[in-house]
Write a structure and sequence with these properties.
By secondary structure, the protein is mainly alpha-helical. Helix content is 73%, strand content 0%. It starts with a helix and ends with a helix.
């Protein structure tokens, strides 16, 4: 019965999220439902457990969410994100519609632009190109998912997306952890994903299936529409990457936290190394925002800069509160007696003496349940990072490999149908789950599988 209460709570949360209800409201409701079913009092569970864990997550990662959203919004409203996408798509042309769409998303996300901004920036050009090439529009979302939601999100070393930042906080690693393993995994995802899309689209074209008669959210691109030069537009992305790299490779003063520890403040990290990657990304995003404003402010209408900064800041509040609510929910579930058997089962999963399979299964399962890569990974690492680190030490597994596997596994089952980014993507494209989700699911399967292929590559060949 204890496990049944947890499963019922999870099912209800997934169902309501899929139906479009806010997890900020319903995550605590279903967490408390599960808690009450196992004898925990309602109000202490809400204020001392759910809210406490949610607030810790906000404290740790809000600057990354806020600055990332502001950076993305400035890139979007100045036209620079569209300029980069337009240059790639126009340069490669209709014959390479799939590749150009995937590369556009990949470059923007690896440069630090948020997934949601990438969707809005790339979709109009991708849809227009697919229409010109006679490719069914229903494949556009899968191309965007492959380029923006997979290998550049959490595989490639140094990616400034939150899924690559969270493990640094728990494991004391850097965003460049296991660079060869991550790059190899990312390359395989790209190749296999492209093969799948080309095969599927080739079959549709052989059946003479055209673009389709679509009326909802069809893009209108004016031929006289002007964008900033793409050569200038790409500079803020490079700035984020370069400054982030420098911040992760320079030697930081290891005593920086000591004055604050002396104040008896409740520090969220045990050492400077646990927060260096967050600090580096904050500095990188600030520099990127400053340069993006300097380059793109003239392209904005009067008052546009204030609107972009405000919209990015306000939008980040919704994003982080959604994830924080999922983290609070997961920690309530983890505190219940019924979860102990689930946790024990996950911890018992291993190949040889390695914790990597346990970590991969746990992270991707929780990401799938919550519909959030960052939320699922944060819950898993908060609950089990210390056990995995101890286990890894006995098996001589470097923390950097734990980092990369956790990051890659988070971007697996997170793109289930109730995932907020998937729902937004389909809405922007004017398509339905029944039209486009089968190929999105194929990307999900490829991405999920790759986390375990990476485990095999490390276990067999020691690739780091």
């Amino acid at each position: 019965m204890e496990v049944f209460g947890i499963i019922l709570s999870l099912f209800l949360l997934m169902f309501f999220a899929y139906r479009g209800f806010s997890v900020i409201l319903f995550a605590p409701i279903f967490a408390l439902l599960a808690a009450v079913s196992q004898g925990l009092p309602v109000m202490p569970t809400y204020t001392e457990l759910f809210m406490a864990k949610a607030v810790i997550y906000v404290k740790s990662f809000f600057p990354v969410f806020m600055l990332g959203a502001v950076f993305g919004k400035v890139m979007e409203d100045s036209g620079m994100a569209k300029s980069i996408a337009h240059a790639i798509i126009e340069g490669l042309g209709p014959k390479h519609a799939i590749l150009s769409t995937v590369l556009s998303c990949a470059i923007l996300t690896y440069g630090g632009v948020s997934l949601f901004v990438v969707v809005f920036a790339v979709y109009p050009f991708a849809a227009a190109l697919f229409k010109e090439a006679g490719i069914p529009k229903r494949f556009v979302p899968a191309c965007i998912v492959l380029g923006g939601f997979t290998f550049t999100m959490d595989c490639l070393p140094g990616t400034p997306q939150i899924q690559n930042i969270i493990p640094t906080n728990f494991l004391g690693t850097s965003v460049y952890s296991a660079p060869i393993l991550g790059s190899l995994g990312g390359l395989i995802i790209f190749i296999v994903g492209m093969m799948w899309l080309k095969r599927r689209i080739g079959g549709a074209l052989a059946r003479q299936e055209g673009y389709g008669d679509h009326k909802l959210n069809e893009p209108e691109i004016r031929e006289d529409q002007k964008f900033p030069a793409w050569q200038l537009s790409v500079l803020p992305l490079l700035t984020v990457l370069i400054v982030n790299y420098i911040g992760n490779t320079v030697a930081w003063n290891t005593t920086l936290l000591e004055p604050f520890a002396a104040m008896k403040l409740p520090l969220m990290v045990p050492a400077v190394k646990n927060v260096v990657s967050i600090w580096a990304l904050i500095i990188g995003l600030v520099c990127g925002i400053g340069l993006a404003i300097a380059i793109g402010v003239k392209q904005m209408p009067k008052g546009g800069l204030a609107r972009a900064l405000n919209a990015g800041t306000i939008g980040s509040l919704l994003a982080i509160m959604n994830t924080a609510s999922e983290v609070g929910y997961g920690n309530v579930i983890a505190s219940l007696p019924g979860f102990k058997s689930i946790a024990a089962a996950m911890m018992s999963l291993h190949v040889g003496n390695s914790p990597l399979v346990s970590e991969g299964v746990t992270v991707t399962t929780l990401a799938g349940i919550t519909g959030s890569a960052s939320g699922g990974m944060a819950i898993a690492l908060d609950l089990m990072a210390k056990d995995w680190m101890a286990w890894a030490a006995t098996a001589n597994v470097p923390p950097e490999v734990l980092h990369r596997i956790a990051s890659m596994a988070s971007g697996g089952l997170d793109t289930m149908p109730h995932n907020g980014a998937i729902i937004t993507l389909l809405a922007v494209c004017g398509l339905t789950h029944s039209e486009s989700y089968p190929d999105i699911f194929a990307m999900t399967v490829i991405k999920t599988t790759m986390a375990f292929v990476a485990i095999a590559l490390y276990s067999l060949f020691g690739i780091v």
